[in-house]
Amino acid sequence: MKPNHQETIIAAIDTSTIKIGETSTGIIIAIRGATTWKQNRKYRYTRLGPFIFHITEENKNEVYNTLEKAYFNAHYSSNRYASPHLMQMPTRLASLLERWLQTMLAKTVNNGLILFDGSLTSGTFDTPVQRMKEILSLARKNSSTVLAFSKMTSLRVNGYLITDQLPKSEPPYLLETTGLRFKPPTVVLGDVYVARLNKANYAFRLDIDRETTLTQRLEAVEKLVGNDLYAQSYPETLRLAHILCTFTANEVLAMQHFITRKHGIQIINRPDMHRLLFGPFGKGEIYS
Amino acid sequence: MKLYKKEGNILQILSFPNENAEKGDYLMVEDPDARKAIIAQVIDVQFASIPGVLEELLRTLPDGGVPIQGEDIDPLEIAPHITYIQDASLLICKTRATLENEALSPSNSWLPSRSQSTIKKLSVPMLLKLAKVEGTRPIILGGTKDSSLLTIDATAVDGMLNIITGKKGCGKSHLSKLLMASLIGYKATVVIFDLNGEYTSIGMTQDGKRNMYYNKIHALTPSQNFKVALDQLHLNVVMGILIHALHLPGTSSREFRRIWKTLKEKGKLSLYELGEAIRNLTCNQHVRDALSSRYHAIVNSGFFTDNPAESTFLKECLLKSKEEGGAIIINLRNTSTIDRQIVVEYVLGKLVDSLQSWKLKAVFLFAEEAHLYLRETYWDDIVTRMRHFGIFTTFITNQPDTIRESIYRQADNIFLFNFTNEHDLDVVSRAARVDAETVRSIARDLPPHHCLTLGRVVRDFPIVTRVRSLDMKTMGETRLFFKDRN
Question: Of B175, B158, B153, nearest to B166 (Cα)?
Fold first, then answer.
């Protein structure tokens, strides 16, 4: 591929979530989303949050449904099987915010490239097929192309990860994958490629909207290469979105301070049972 | 504020931005259960080690050094809390005393509760009250950071060895004038070796009028209004001048002693007779030459006279000062190195004489840049022998390494102005009455005219003061060529 330097808006979205602490009845979490875009050679951002939630077994469905209704005016999780585990709530809420931000960008960016963090997989609790289809359709209506970059992939061909089998061609290039199968109810709304965008020896899984033509796809990736900076073959706009929404330890402390000061909620320091039982051999629990 | 750590006599206290504690401030760490409190002084302020701060700073500069433009929609207003945590500071404090039953003790062997202790700022007046820095002869040094006055007692300077030091132009001479003026206010006798002639006009206000000290200031300029008749001199003083200032060898000294005694017995002790006696001396040529050259040095100094009427001023001044208090300023400006040493030898000898014979009770001696006129053996003399006679010295210098280490070790009070040079700070930190960390940390950041007072005057609680102004014609400012510069 050849870089296409035609001025193009590149926008990216990412969200993150973190557990702030535990209370006697549940968990306190924070979510934050960031959209970044490059226009006229300058990066800009909008960061939303942090939004802090106290989630308990009693309120988890109510919280989720209220947000879903507010964002999408819909109830996807009304059936009881869809009810998430308390510990899954942080990622569920972050996904909800991410889909909403993706919808907003798809509605507002014209003739641009919209970068998603992750894949175009749908059919999961977080991402119903219909919702992802709507986002892609909105983008197409505005002549924008959605490119979804996955930092990690588990997809394998002949037993090898698809991102490990790189030809000796000069980057930038795209490798097309064929014959990949996904277990139902998972539906992938994009075609899966392996993208190596510069000489750094890294490649990523890239999903491109299946409803676009091959020419449109190639043009989109060439414009991306021609307009965005790259560090380790990863688009800078997406990298910035990730950096801006990630929570630092300092922010966690600040949110704990806010919760205690403003709402008088006492955070419980539960003992780490792994550490308690296994000492230096216990690695501690990882929730998020 | 929260107590974080205690290591030896160092306390680490976590402080939040709205608590604004600064270097030099005193804190009281009170443990209600133990019914005791530690009094500690902040000697350094550092950023608290908050996890994630580096990441926080890094992500604000991702675009080639230019901050990325954007909008933060923060409906819960968490950002101020982030800043609050990020700007938290760690106060490094030195424990100074323990307060128990309203009495202070230097012990810091106990550990206050980390969770229960309350920490609050201790104002300087409160600290001074607890430390019982009080007396009947107050000297107001200046204002402290919390807008109170630092008042020391004149008795804490009495009988003590003091050092005023700091780099050029930070207000050392100003403080020495303040101390001097306060002492003469209490009828003390003060003698000043004024190297640059900057004390001679302190009897005048800044606008040239006479101030309240005018009648107590006696400026003596050698070979002008300050002369000495030979017959008033003690042989010991003369020998001191000849041996130490004029480096007369031993054999010649013996010869001189003989001549002096002979002339004294005959009642013919005058410059002319002394010159004649040396000229007619039958002895080794080298001895005669040595005596002759010293004689001419003495004559050429213009400091000695045969006219008794010209040589009474010092005695008169000392007498006057004894009654009402006063400052005798020995103006050494425009005096050559040798003449300066002659004058200093004479004055010190005369003072010792007067003190030994109880003509004087005690003298406060202020010596500016003493290394320029004080002979080697006098340093130890001043802190040991002369002190017992009643000469209480205050050394003023901007070159702390010119004062011997033994002087620092025995100094009772140190008034320390700003130093940035590590070597200078090292020298001062050898003083016995203060710890090196306090000197290094606080003195380095002192603004001009601010002094760190250490020692007995503040009962070993170092206190930073802005030295108060005086309505005196100071003349301590450097003469400049470019008058209109900012």
Answer: B175
Find the length of chain A: 288
* Helix (H) or strand (E) run with residue B392 in it: strand B391-397
Q: In which residue are the tokens 């003790």 written?
A: B105
Looking at the predicted complex, does its ipTM rise above 0.95?
no
Answer for the pair B173, B476: CB distance below 8 angstroms, yes or no.
Answer: yes
pLDDT digits (tens, 9 = 90+) for B199-220: 888 888 888 888 888 888 888 8
State how far the Cα of B266 lies from the Cα of B276, in Å rounded to an integer: 14
Residues of A in contact with B53 (CB under 8 A): 248, 250
A288 — pLDDT class (breaks 50, 70, 90): very low
For chain A, the structural domain boundaries read 10-281
The arithmetic mean of pLDDT across residues B310-338, rounded, is: 84
For B474-484, give one letter per residue: b (16+ CB within 10 A) or e.
bbbeeeeeeee
What's the pLDDT score for residue A218? 93
Q: CA-CA distance, A68 to A85, in Å (whole number)?
A: 17
* Residue B74 touches chain A, beta carbons under 8 Å: yes
Indicate whether B42 pLDDT > 90: yes
The CATH code of domain A10-281 reads 3.30.2170
Fold of B2-66+77-122: Pnp Oxidase; Chain A (2.30.110)
The amino acid that residue B78 corresponds to is: I
Q: Give residue for tokens 């107050």.
A: B138
C-alpha closest to that of B91 among B146, B155, B43, B158: B43
Backbone angles phi and psi of A220, in degrees to 5: -60, -45
Q: State which fold the B149-225+310-467 domain adopts.
A: Rossmann fold (3.40.50)
Q: Indicate yes or no: CB of B85 within 8 angstroms of CB of A249.
A: no
This prediction's pTM: 0.77
Give the count of beta carbons closer than 10 Å to the beta carbon of residue B353: 16
Which pLDDT does position B69 carry in this prediction?
A: 86
Residues of chain B with CATH 2.30.110: 2-66+77-122
pLDDT one-digit tens code per residue, B89-98: 999 999 999 9
Interchain CB distance below 8 Å, A258 and B78: yes
Amino acid identity, position A242: H
Per residue in A142-171, pLDDT tens? Answer: 999 999 999 888 888 778 888 888 888 888
Q: Which of A39, A250, A253, A269 to mutate to test the interface with B (most CBs of B within 10 A)?
A: A250
Q: Name residue, tokens 């800043």.
A: B83
> Comparing C-alpha atoms, which of B459, B436, B485 is closest to residue B127?
B459
Which residues of chain B form CATH 3.40.50.300?
A: 149-225+310-467
Torsion of CA B385, B387, B391, B392, to 10 degrees: 150
pLDDT number for residue B74: 92
What is the β-pairing status of strands A113-117 and A10-22?
parallel
Q: How confident is the model at residue B431 (pLDDT cuts 50, 70, 90)?
A: confident
Nearest to B1 by CA among B20, B9, B10: B20
Using the beta-carbon criterion (under 8 Å), do A51 and B84 form an inter-chain contact? no
Q: Mean pLDDT lowest for which of A118-122, A272-276, A284-288? A: A284-288
**Which of A47 and B376 is assigned the larger pLDDT?**
A47
Name the interface residues of A facing B (CB cutoff 8 Å).
36, 42-52, 240, 243-244, 246, 248-255, 257-258, 261
Report the 10 Å Cβ neighbour count for A279: 8
Residues in Cβ contact with B103 at an 8 Å cutoff, skipping those fewer than 6 apart? none
Q: Does the pLDDT of residue B321 top 70, yes or no?
A: yes
Contact between A250 and B50 using a beta-carbon 8 Å cutoff: yes
**Closest listed residue to residue A43, CA positions, set A252, A260, A268, A240:** A240
| Token couple for B134 | 């009080």
- Which is nearest to A98 in space by CA: A72, A74, A75, A66? A72
The percent of residues above 90 in pLDDT, for chain A, comes to 41
